[in-house]
Design goal:
- By secondary structure, the chain is α/β, with parallel strands linked by helices.
- It has one domain: Rossmann fold, CATH 3.40.50.
- It is 37% helix and 17% strand.
- The strands form three sheets. The chain has a five-stranded parallel β-sheet with strand order 2-1-7-8-9.
- The longest helix is centred in the middle third of the chain and has 17 residues.
- The radius of gyration is 21 Å and the shape is globular.
Amino acid sequence: MRYVDEYRDAAAVRRVADAIRAAVTRPWRIMQVCGGQTHAIVRFGIDELLPREVELLHGPGCPVCVTPVELIHRAIAIAARPGVVLCSFGDMMRVPGSDRDLFAAKAAGADVRVVYRPLDALTVAASEPTRDVVFFAVGFETTAPATAMAVHEAARRRLANFSLLVSHVLVPPAIEAILGAPECRVDGFLAAGHVGAVMGGDQYVPLAARHRVPIVITGFEPLDLLEGIHRCVLQLEQGRAEVENQYARAVRASGNETARAMIERVFAVTPRTWRGIGPIPASGLRLREAYAAFDAELRFDVAGVGGREPDECRSGLVLQGRIKPPECPAFRVRCTPERPLGAAMVSSEGACAAYHRYRRSESAWRPTST
């Protein structure tokens, strides 16, 4: 099932939009931290239903978009090794590094394959024991349990030809970094329902209390998002700063204990550089020492391989909510899905890709005030 019809009911959507309009008395800026939410907002014109006092900001909610350039180059360097099969999700294949992507590596002869889940890469390793199979693991907490299960299963089955290039990142430290920035313009957050389904709503409570900012966990359909915005606006208008769970049909306060236990068993928290944003302390995952034999960076000695973001790309400002994609001079001119400068134009969850696909005129977006 892709969606439930009642969450796209036009009459219900209008009612919630009217309630937001009735509640707001002053300008508020609300950031969503999920690329899936961004695409739904732009696709369905949810921002255009809101009163002008409510501005939606796009945050670093696309794990493909924030995968650092150096890891793209490390993946390419590993894929170029003889006898290596590099597997990852389809979005990663066209994410540009400084000058090339994984599809370019494939065109040059590397064995690069698209898979739909980490266990697919494990299946390749089991079926091709003479090849070194590397899974390029990206994602938020949502996909980390499946990656952890794959390496745990590889250890159990003693598949010595399987390893991970890990680029998993964590949402709360990114929110912390945004709120701690001097130029922060965010009054409230819409948190991603799928991350909440794994990690629970309680993980946001210290953030909300420390920064006095409301955080509302929402789903991905129009009514989900508008209800989340309404709850956030009510908190802001009433001077409250709490964690609310609009997505109660999927999210519990403690999350999925089994999935969290698997993450904690296999991974440890580590600093991580976010593409377009920079280093964020304690914002990533790395393999624990017990699983170090499955670390592709160590196995192939590529930790020193680097790269740099194209100077013209401003997707980092988009990911921090400081500009909207059309405010980038390269948008739709020198940066398109066919020839992207940055990951946000490639990923199916990237804000630049969403605006390129669904907003064909300048009248369909509001400039971000600075």
